[in-house]
Each structure stands twice: as C-alpha cells, then as structure tokens.
Amino acid sequence: MQENDKNGPIQDDEAKKRMRGDLRSNREEAREMEPSGEDQPEPYRDPQALRTGGTPEGMTSRDVELRSEIAQYLGRHLYPTGREEVLDALRAEHAPDRLLEMAEGLPADQRFTNVQELAQALGLHTESHRS
C-alpha cells in the first residue's frame, strides 16, 4: 500500500510554481560573473573580443585566420589532394566565395599533402620552422 502525501493536488501545484521560480532565479544568477577573489588577478579580457597575439613568426594574423578557415572547411580526410578535390570539397561545405576564388588559382597539376602546403600554394605566409 502506498503512503499518502501530506499535501493535496492544490498544494502540490503551488509547490511546483515556487520551485520553478527558484530554479529560474538560480539560472539567472549563474549567468552573472563573480568578481575575482582577493588573491586572484583581475580579468582583463572580454571573451567576445578579437583575440590577438600568438601569431607564428613569418605569418600575419590574416594568414593564420585564412589557413584555419580553409582547414575547417576541408578537414583532414581530404589529403593528399589536388585543386579539383579542394574546389569540390569547398563547394560541398558551402565555403565562402572568397575561399573558392582563392582555390581556383591553385595549380592544376600539383598535389598537396597537408594544409600547410595548400596555404603556401595559395600565397599565404607560413610559419618559420625553428632550428
């Protein structure tokens, strides 16, 4: 035999409404950033801001962004690859027109074993290797 609740259906509904309100208020509080503790450094970077720095020697930030974007559209499975496969993959992934225009300038007879070689063929600077 089941134990009877001490509350009736009306009290249960009221408790659910209170609980929903508590859950919503906790959710809203969680979105607010808490200040740093006394022994912790102050945050100084906006997470939505454009990231700077970390550009490898020999490359511009534009080179880094373009190479990264090309790599995202092509993935790793495509290599080794040629010009036509690159164009087909970019079209299939609905890449921006500017990337397609760049890829149309690739030499038709060359094969690329990785995104680094592809970026070089596109005229992008690549990082200098350290000795």
Structure description:
The protein is mainly α and 131 residues long. Helix content is 47%, strand content 3%. The chain has five helices and two strands. It has helices spanning 9-31, 61-74, 83-92, 97-104, 115-121, and strands at 81-82, 111-112. Strands 1-2 form a two-stranded antiparallel sheet. Helix 3 runs antiparallel to helix 4 (97-104). The chain is elongated and about 80 Å long. The model has no long low-confidence stretch (mean pLDDT 78).
Q: Which terms would index this structure?
A:
mainly alpha; single chain; elongated; 3% strand; two-stranded antiparallel ribbon; 131 residues
Count of discrete alpha- or pi-helical segments spanning 4 or more residues: 5
Spatial strand arrangement across the major sheet: 1-2
Q: Please tell me how large the radius of gyration is.
A: 27 Å
Largest sheet properties: 2 strands, antiparallel
What series of H and E elements makes up the topology? HHEHHEH
Give the rounded overall mean pLDDT. 78
Fraction of residues in H or I helices: 40-55%
Short description:
This protein is mostly helical and 131 residues long. It has 5 helices and 2 strands.
How would the blueprint of this fold be written?
Layout: H1 9-31, H2 61-74, E1 81-82, H3 83-92, H4 97-104, E2 111-112, H5 115-121
Antiparallel strand pairs: 1-2
Helix pairs in contact: 3-4
